[in-house]
Automatic annotation (TrEMBL), chain A:
<dbReference type="InterPro" id="IPR011990">
    <property type="entry name" value="TPR-like_helical_dom_sf"/>
</dbReference>
<keyword id="KW-0472">Membrane</keyword>
<dbReference type="InterPro" id="IPR033985">
    <property type="entry name" value="SusD-like_N"/>
</dbReference>
<keyword id="KW-0732">Signal</keyword>
<comment type="similarity">
    <text>Belongs to the SusD family.</text>
</comment>
<dbReference type="GO" id="GO:0009279">
    <property type="term" value="C:cell outer membrane"/>
</dbReference>
<feature type="domain" description="SusD-like N-terminal">
    <location>
        <begin position="82"/>
        <end position="229"/>
    </location>
</feature>
<dbReference type="InterPro" id="IPR012944">
    <property type="entry name" value="SusD_RagB_dom"/>
</dbReference>
<keyword id="KW-0998">Cell outer membrane</keyword>
<dbReference type="Pfam" id="PF07980">
    <property type="entry name" value="SusD_RagB"/>
</dbReference>
<feature type="domain" description="RagB/SusD">
    <location>
        <begin position="278"/>
        <end position="531"/>
    </location>
</feature>
<dbReference type="Pfam" id="PF14322">
    <property type="entry name" value="SusD-like_3"/>
</dbReference>
<protein>
    <submittedName>
        <fullName>RagB/SusD family nutrient uptake outer membrane protein</fullName>
    </submittedName>
</protein>
Length: 535, 516
């Protein structure tokens, strides 16, 4: 037979669960839920706001858990990078667009914007039954967090970042373009304003302990004030709005919700988190396992805390000699902020109690730098991380911002009053500190503003003969390591270039005011133009 | 549990937790196949196939794909006019055309879902689980199709001692399933949507030849093969380029896939040696403000006096011009037993490798150990170093005739930016395996009730001929950061001290093969 013809026809079906006949091809993901059927109960709306908070920690750790402290501290004149981390460009105003830190921060804060946008969209379109106060609180949190994330993005990358106020709905929105001048600032202000209207006072919200750590009305007012004062950074070429800030700060002060802790160091300890001085803080948590198990911990202690060679610390970033010199004689805050001579002692995991002399003996280079004791435990544990919350806005900042606004308005006695409150607290006796420290037994000896003016001292080349200069000095020492110094210099410098001099001296240029947009973003998104650092 | 609808234990637990964890995914496929074959005297052969596939990875409206294919062959050696050519045993011409489907993507891409995994925040030190859509869905995702044309010839001659196979192929992939990068500002982090985006073509030749012969007790076979591929991107949806291959640290993209070019070409700055004179530095003062003698001189492609991403260019091709191999087997049977010997060689020619290992090994930006090659670094003057511990003094002479930049803490000139400095010729020829065996004579082993007893010794990767300076020119196929988008990121050597890729190891083995 020369001709052969075969005809085969058969059916095959396969599935993990079924066999024989046609399987079900409409499978749903058993681990996730459909967007269309979610967000249908108040509890599900509560779940929507959580990732907007998580972005502060950073889902890829570009938030306060890891990388952000380099980006916020290194460009200041107060911190230097050590020999331990090269190259660290944040310190040299030469950050390439391919640097690993800005890209993680960009992803995390925009992830937070997205989460806040989803929450706002779903909560405002919610048709089910929800308690009005609860709905307002949730909306307030979402507005607060969107403004918070945009404020960070704008401080770091400038106001030409994309403006996104709705969750992405279709693939047409995958490549957003630059915001125009003033748009980002306007969004930040409006969002904080809405948060002020919608959020409850701290005492009301925190009466339920499960809410401790959420944004409050006071936090929104204080951040709104900070945004008004940061305007020269957030909207190029525009002056700070001190008068508007003053109104918000006055409300915070008059609300009676906050007061200064009697011990300055209570602001940096895990046991005294979310205290009455804390207006807003990021909630860190260190689980029992290695590295806390779940990316909710802070690495700050390990990365920028203790000196090199002491119990395995990394010491990548360190306060410099200028910072050491900025503290007045008799200011106990110096020893609560820095690891330095005559200061606190550190106990290594092997039980060795070490001090400055020991550290210097073990340090080969960078002997003119110091350690950061603030947010750093005095005793090493067998892990890198800790659960200490960074206080992102303290009541003492409210007081000093208020003093600054009063001074701008010409109310010098008022300004002095609030500066004196902060300086008086700095002198308080601190019974819980290490026993060899003098301020445990007797108060600090820094004078009040009038006596300081009378002394006419010069610190680091700045003469303390004006209220403005005293505020600048006071902010430097009070908030050292709390992510404010570089931005203070920038916002003052936009109005009066003399405040940029300390930065210019170490290589800062106007071009380097912001970090470059991450190259990976520009690679993916050709609709977006970079900022000056990309050119 | 974030929702009573989710019945999976440990869904929101972290990876390190000792609490029980589990995960579940499902997939399903439904296929219908049909085939018709026609055969006339083994001279004319025709086959037609048809298949219809349904995949649960696509929504109802895009679920099914139809994939026909046809092939025909003509065995010339059975034609009368070939009868006189007796040295030809078989000669066949073949041709085929077909459409194939690809549905190989992660499941559930067409559905928009919220996830609870790793979504949490601590309030008052108590973990609160949240919900967030983390994957950009694509409700329209559908089958990728590959249209494939193949023309070939099979020839065997001289009592089947010598055989050739030749093929020309032309494959065109349409509606390619690609993880298309989107703006990070949209908020999905590194999760990209799977889109049917673009088309590519692959064309090339494949040749193989084998010769085998027995001469008395000596039996051998030799074979060689070579294949070429020419790849071209025809279309990439509306975006028309994908940058990928983010190398560590920082994730700088070192490949660019663009229309009109081959897929995954290396992308970065071109360089023009080092700054070796003050005059060069002076001339480039605004272009390279942080440069000093011995720093890399980057090329200002667009002559705008600024070094930025617009100056990047195609700097290499990870796809070989051809790849090839040789196999040989020899055996000699004698009274004392049988000796056998075999070798496999493989190689590729004309491909480049992006050697990112040199970022770390030749970076010289930190107090790290560096490759010995950095001894040849640029030194504008003699350096005398006295080791404070051992007291040994080392003199490093002035060295300006080199292409290795100076050592400088912090790399102010960004010498480490992705550039052609890291692109190397990846051609190689490698003795992939070699085995020598000895089989004991049957007469001897049958006494021990053993059918066959062979002792052998051999090795893998014993010899490599290459100019590539990294550990291994056979670069592992993927770097983790790109989620398996292999074609876009091939040829990137991420070998680092804490490596993502691993070199092929050289192995020597000794064995006894025994059958009863």
């Amino acid at each position: 037979m020369k001709h052969t013809i075969y005809i085969l026809a058969f059916l095959v079906s396969g599935s993990l669960f079924l066999s024989g006949c046609k399987p079900n091809l409409d499978l749903i993901n058993p681990q996730e839920l459909s967007v269309d059927t979610y967000y249908k109960t108040p509890e599900e709306l509560e779940a929507a706001i959580i990732p907007a908070y998580q972005a502060i920690v950073g889902r890829t750790q570009g938030g306060y858990a890891r990388m952000l402290y380099y980006e916020l501290l290194a460009p200041g004149d107060d911190f230097n990078h050590t020999f331990k981390w090269e190259p660290m460009y944040q310190d040299t105003y030469n950050t390439p667009s391919s640097d690993q830190m800005p890209v993680a921060t960009w992803k995390d804060f925009f992830n937070g914007v997205f989460a806040a946008n989803i929450a706002l969209d779903r909560i405002s379109n919610f048709t089910g039954t929800i308690d009005e106060a609860r709905k307002n609180r949730l909306l307030g949190e979402a507005h607060f967090l969107r403004a918070f994330h945009y404020m960070h993005l704008c401080m770091l990358f400038g106001e030409t970042i994309p403006l996104i106020t709705d969750p992405v709905k279709s693939s047409d929105e995958y490549y957003p373009t630059n915001a125009t001048a003033g748009q980002i600032y306007q969004l930040i202000i409006e969002d904080f304003q809405k948060a002020v209207e919608l959020l409850p006072e701290r005492s009301v919200l925190y009466s339920n302990a499960a809410n401790i750590g959420r944004a409050t009305k006071g936090a929104a007012e204080a951040y709104l004030a900070r945004a008004y004062m940061y305007r020269p950074i957030l909207e190029i070429g525009k002056p700070a709005e001190f008068a508007k800030a003053q109104v918000q700060l006055k409300n915070v002060i008059e609300s009676g919700q906050y007061h200064l802790m009697s011990s300055y160091s209570d602001n940096f300890k895990e046991a005294t988190e979310n205290n009455a001085e804390s207006v807003f803080e990021v909630q860190m948590h260190n689980g029992t396992g290695w590295l806390g198990d779940d990316l909710s911990d802070s690495w700050r202690w390990q990365e920028i805390g203790m000196f090199d060679g002491t119990g395995g610390a990394w010491w990548n970033l360190a306060p410099n000699k200028k910072t050491y010199d900025e503290f007045e004689p008799g200011d106990p805050r110096k020893f609560m902020t820095l690891w330095c001579d005559n200061g606190a002692k550190y106990t290594q995991i092997d039980g060795t109690v070490t001090d400055y002399k020991y550290w210097m003996a073990h340090l080969a280079t960078n002997k003119d730098l110091y350690g950061t004791r603030k947010y750093c435990p005095d005793v090493q544990v067998a892990d890198f991380d800790d659960g200490i919350n960074d206080r992102l806005l303290r009541y003492s900042d409210v007081l000093l911002m208020y003093a600054e606004c009063l001074n701008e308005a010409g109310d010098v006695p008022g300004a002095k009053k609030y500066i004196n409150m902060v300086r008086a607290r700095a002198n308080d006796v601190v019974p819980s500190e290490q026993p060899q420290l003098w301020y445990q037994h007797s108060p600090g000896t820094i004078p009040d503003v009038d006596k300081l003016l009378a002394k006419d001292t010069v610190i680091n080349g700045v003469r303390l003969n004006t209220i403005k200069n005293i505020i600048a000095h006071e902010r430097y020492v009070e908030f050292c390591g709390e992510y404010l110094r570089y931005f203070d210099l920038l916002r003052w410098g936009m109005a009066d270039p003399q405040w940029l001099e300390p930065l210019k001296k170490i290589g800062w240029t106007p071009r380097a005011m912001y970090y470059p947009f991450p190259q990976a973003e520009l690679d993916n998104n050709s609709n977006l133009k970079g900022n000056a650092m990309n050119n | 549990m974030p929702s009573p609808d989710l019945l999976i234990l440990g869904l929101t637990q972290d990876a390190n937790s000792k609490v029980v964890g589990s995960s579940l995914g499902r997939t399903a496929m439904y296929s219908m196949l049909g085939r018709v074959t026609y055969n006339y005297d083994s001279k004319y052969l025709l086959t037609a196939n048809f298949r219809r596939d349904g995949s649960a990875n696509f929504s109802k409206s895009n679920r099914y794909g139809n994939f026909p294919s046809f092939s025909a062959a003509w065995r010339l050696s059975r034609e009368n006019f070939m009868k006189n050519l007796t040295f030809i045993n078989d000669l066949k011409l073949r041709g085929s055309y077909g459409k194939l489907g690809n549905s190989d993507i992660s499941p559930y891409q067409y559905q928009s879902t919220v996830t609870f995994d790793h979504v949490w925040y601590y309030l008052n030190d108590i973990k609160v689980v949240g919900a967030l859509p983390t994957m950009p869905s694509n409700p329209n995702v559908k089958w990728e199709s590959q249209y494939s044309t193949d023309l070939g010839m099979d020839l065997s001659m001289f009592n089947n001692r010598l055989s050739f196979t030749m093929d020309y192929y032309n494959k065109k992939t349409e509606e390619m399933l690609v993880n298309v990068p989107i703006s990070y500002a949209v908020g999905y982090g590194d999760n990209f949507p799977t889109l049917n985006s673009g088309s590519i073509s692959n064309k090339g030749f494949e040749f193989a030849a084998t010769y085998n012969k027995r001469e008395g007790r000596f039996n051998y076979s030799l074979s060689a093969n070579i294949s070429t591929v020419k790849n071209k991107v025809l279309n990439l949806g509306n975006k028309n380029e994908i940058l990928a291959g983010g190398v560590s640290p920082g994730g700088e993209n070192v490949t660019r896939t663009a229309v009109g070019h081959a897929i995954g070409q290396f992308w970065g700055y071109k360089t023009d040696g080092l700054y070796k004179t003050e005059a060069q530095l002076e001339a480039d003062k605004s272009f390279a403000p942080n440069a000093a003698l011995g720093d890399v001189k980057f090329v200002d492609k667009n002559d705008d006096g600024i070094l930025n991403a617009d100056d990047k260019d195609f700097i290499g091709n990870p796809i070989p011009k051809f790849s090839y191999g040789f196999n040989s087997n020899f055996s000699y049977a004698a009274g004392f037993g049988t000796l056998d010997f075999s070798m496999i060689w493989q190689g590729s020619y004309g491909n480049d490798i992006y050697n990112n290992g040199r970022y770390w090994g030749e970076g010289m930006y930190h107090y790290y150990n560096d490759y010995a090659s950095t001894l040849d670094r640029y030194r504008s003057q003699e350096v005398i170093f006295k080791n404070p511990v051992s007291g040994v003094t080392t003199v490093y002479p002035k060295n300006t005739e080199t292409n290795i930049p100076r050592a400088i803490l912090g790399d102010p000139n960004h010498n480490l930016s992705a550039s052609d400095r890291f692109v190397e010729d990846g051609s190689y020829l490698r003795l992939k395996s070699l085995t020598i065996g000895y089989t004991l004579p049957n007469a001897l082993v049958s006494r021990w009730k053993v059918d066959k007893l062979r002792i052998y010794i051999g090795g893998k990767n014993l010899l490599t001929f290459t100019k590539y300076t990294g550990y291994d020119p056979e670069v592992a196929s993927d770097n983790g950061a790109n989620g398996g988008r292999y074609n876009l990121v091939r040829g990137i050597d991420e070998m680092t001290p804490w490596g993502i890729t691993f070199a092929n190891s050289r192995e020597v083995f000794l064995g006894i093969q025994c059958s009863f």
